[in-house]
Amino acid sequence: MVKLTADLIAKQTPGHNKRRADETVEHYLSRLTHLPFQNRGIDSIDSISPCRLLTVIYLYDNILNKIENLNFAENLTHLYLQNNRLQKLENLDYCPKLQKLYLGGNQIQVLEGLDKCIHLKEIYIENQRLPEGEKLVFEPRTLQCLSSILEVLNVSGNNLDSLVELSCLQRLEELTASNNNLENLRELIQLLSIWSRLKRLDTSRNPICTKARYRERLIVVSTTLEMLDGKQITDNSRQFLMSWKASREAQLTREKSRPDFDDGPGEYTNHSYYRRNIIKADLGLVKKGQFPMALVENAHRKMTPRVNKFSGFFASKSFNNPDPNNSNENPIITFQDPSTQTFFK
Which of 217, 252, 287 is the last residue of a domain? Predict the structure, then answer.
């Protein structure tokens, strides 16, 4: 067990910034700007108040289980805490100038406690060692405080099934959310229309990647996106996809502007009033021109099955069962050929 103390810093600080032989410990600590103590087996942080000029602290690859005693770090801008045993984000209120926070590979379940970090631009909280079935949770107050300042966010490998909570991040330029459980492509398309500054997006190794035209649809909806899943988006590819989208929309508009008489029931054939009156038209009870001729013919063709190749010309009860002695029954003939229009005159 190793504790980060002022004496440890004075004795073992590596690199060119070592303590001079005639220099006191307090004076030495007061001029330090970088603290490289990664991979030292450190499990706790002692109060090192003389280190007020520190701007960068490297404490990754240790065994820290708590963030503490940072009340001296009013000038801290970069904090590296990857691959420790941290379970909670706390005690960062004394770091108002913090700009980059590295937390990957810990056991943090909630992104919280950052509402006082008013200059925080980048957060890396990927691959948290979460309990089975759990996912990373975002505290609403923290997200609201970060909404106008955060530019880079890495939440990969945290069992996320939605990114809707991140919609408030107005200045987001880079989002890495690979290796999660994202499935809703429509949701992501809507988010891209909100993130108007987003330049880099990585949602690889998600179920969403198997959706039809996944990459094409994301490129078309976001005009600012420059990199998607680690692959650059060229101007030529974007122009081609935008042209394809415009032609597709024009085609759909043309199809919607006219009724579809052949492919299934439309707005006319769905209505019971239409079906009743199409029978009246067949009997000559509706005046010519009340319904579109093509519509009447199409519906009549679908409603009257044909028995053989001659049934398209006529069908007569008297022909099917001829009885010359029965003079009371008048033969009823109904023309079924869609090309004829005589029964509408």
Answer: 252
